[in-house]
Specification:
The protein has about 260 residues and is mostly beta strands. Helix content is about 0%, strand content about 55%. A hairpin with a 7-residue loop joins strand 12 and strand 13. It is elongated and about 80 Å long. The N terminus is likely disordered.
């Protein structure tokens, strides 16, 4: 059973030249999970519904029918820097559930964010509802591909040359920001390297390091390249890391392609 932490309310006094007003903030304290419950205020729960890092989509469930949310902004979690305005609309026929959505610029995809929504309760009091939005997963991947002592270079008369055997050493560090996440290898037509401590993937972890070492026999089904791809998904988006190595050079194995993409 999932244990849900409740948000807490912090009150701060805002002073102006002519009047005084209470500004009430309700913070998300349960981390970067998709679902958050709030113990007080005009919103009872928020749900992150988006699966793409470039697009933020959050549903807000008012705690009473008369409660309404009417403006929202996306900011960085640590500094509060403004990122983008968010649109708000009601999505059910009774006008109760609100949807806040916005496009996230490329430079903020790998940054933890927060959605700050302005809402009123049925008494007309204004609240700022905070929803934590994680960055897309961060993948730090170091790989060494080298020939073994027993490796031979084979050159068929009418095909590409290739190495009979090679060794792959991988060090993989993934920061998913939340346990509401999973990672997997998605490479096709390449050998399974067991990049996640001997497994093809891992799930429900915030941050972890995975090590693997494998000797690949390239004789049974010879390949001119080694292609490997890792895909990690959390409640804000997906990150894909890809590496391609050339196996046709007689003297060395060369890295041809190395990319990290946020989706």
């Amino acid at each position: 059973m999932k244990i849900r932490n409740f948000a807490v309310v912090a009150f701060s006094l805002v002073t102006s030249t002519y009047s005084f007003a209470n500004s009430q903030n309700i913070f998300d304290i349960d981390g970067y999970d998709r679902y958050t419950e709030y113990a007080q205020g005009p919103v009872s729960a928020s749900v992150i519904a988006s699966d793409y890092a470039h697009y933020m989509d959050v549903y807000l469930h008012p705690s009473a029918t008369a409660n309404a949310c009417y403006s929202a902004e996306v900011k960085t979690e640590n500094t509060g820097e403004f990122i983008a305005s968010a649109n708000i609309r009601t999505v059910d026929q009774h006008g109760r559930i609100h949807q806040a959505y916005s496009t996230i610029p490329d430079e903020y995809l790998s940054v933890n964010k927060k959605l700050v929504v302005t809402c009123d309760d049925d008494a007309g009091d204004e609240y700022k509802i905070h929803v934590k939005i994680p960055s897309a997963p961060k993948i730090h991947w170091d790989v060494t591909v080298e020939l073994t002592e027993s490796s031979e270079y084979i050159q068929p008369s009418r095909s590409f040359g290739y190495h009979s055997e090679y060794k792959v050493s991988s060090s993989l560090r993934v920061e998913n920001q939340t346990t509401d996440s999973f990672c997997q290898t998605t490479s096709q037509y390449s050998p399974a390297l067991g990049l996640f401590n001997g497994e093809v993937g891992a799930d429900k972890f915030n941050s972890n390091v995975f090590l693997s070492n494998k000797i690949v026999n390239n004789l049974v089904n010879p390949k001119p390249v080694l292609m490997q791809s890792i895909e990690c998904q959390n409640s804000a988006g997906k990150t894909v890391a890809r590496k391609v190595y050339d196996l046709t050079n007689k003297d060395a194995i060369e890295l041809l392609y190395d990319e990290v993409e946020y989706k």
